[in-house]
Amino acid sequence: MPETASTTRAPAALLPSLAPLLHEWLPRQRWFAGKGRRVTGFTLEAATELLPLDGAGPGLLHLLVRVEQPGRPAGAPADCYQLLLGVRSQLPPRLAPALIGRIRQGPLAGRAVYEGLRDPRLAGLLYERLRTPGRIGPLSFHGAADLPPALAPRVLDAEQSNSSLVYGDTYILKIFRRVSPGANPDLELPLALTRAGCTRVPAPVAWFESGASTLGVLQPYLRDSRDGWRLALDALAGGREFTSEAHALGRATAEVHLALATALPTERLHRPQTEHLAGEMDQRLHAAAQAVPALLPYVPGLRAVFAAVGDAVGSGLLQRIHGDLHLGQTLRAAEDDGWAEDDGWAVIDFEGEPAKPLAERCRPQPAVRDVAGMLRSFDYAARTHRPWNAEWAARCRAAYCSGYAEVSGADPRADPALLRAYETDKAVYEVVYEARHRPDWLPVPMAAIERLAGSE
Q: Quick one: 147 and 234 in the same domain?
């Protein structure tokens, strides 16, 4: 059984003592969304001792903290982050890289605070909580008692906007760092797909939340699988085609879309809605051009792309979609994994674009938006290879659309204005993302911007 937990006993004094450390540590984290803006303060939403902080430790402190930063829209709440902090009197050398700092004052004065997920004992405790459903203060754990005990944890160090732990190469726990009120799509949509009988997504087996906010999801870990991005790059490096894989991936995408349309409400797409979509794209372009001046010369051409979508009606359907589909959000499973379809493709990470508000990510949208994201991903892969193989990307894009059409009955290329608009919108998003996080990659989406802003 898990060790006793409780809400923390001195919340008022806790945050001021942690604030100097968080000021330095938070902006350096890969998952921190407020990079480039100074942190002006913190507000403690909840504090729970998942492992009591008595004695020399270790203790495990779960925090939900709002981070105050200038520049957020009027009336919008400050971003809320989930932190799992280890606390010890003395930090062993093996945990030195996880150190956040030593507290100088307050109820934990003199103790070392560190990234708790890096401590196998604390990471294992989190898994044990999921094996024993129930409440701990504001936290609710939903799981299955038949989960195997004592699986060794390890942190995945892959670049991502959340944190992930793998337990015994059997399960993976995604911990959402930026928390919003409401069910996270990365739990809601896989649950809906599982109920609909879709086997393209590993079914959630446990999760935890605070109120209505999803904090983490445990799913089967496909240990021998490889993501579509790596497979595509390997094909490019080996001078091989990727069209058969792209065709199968198009079929898998269509299966997911059809299952989502069956499991969750849909609505018709009419001209007022396409005009609204075009207006939103135009607004995002305006904001992006202010943030990344390199976009400014292309704004007139890009606005024309968005204006053309006002006359498009697409497939005539708005539905729940993946929201951030690209090659890195797909896995090709090993043949002996058993649960996947014959071609081995699985779709993962249904969270959508984390930078966007949760309500926007959960809104029904045209399925062609996911298709556009994947088409951009083929172009991304080809652009990272030297020399650039434009024909390789074009063949993959065509094969993907053909596979999609075979299953869905609707070829996404039949709505060129809507498809191009969503490709353009995605490229604008990529420009801002790369400028903020990976400046060396900025030429990749900028090449697409130049193409899409032209008269093609």
A: no
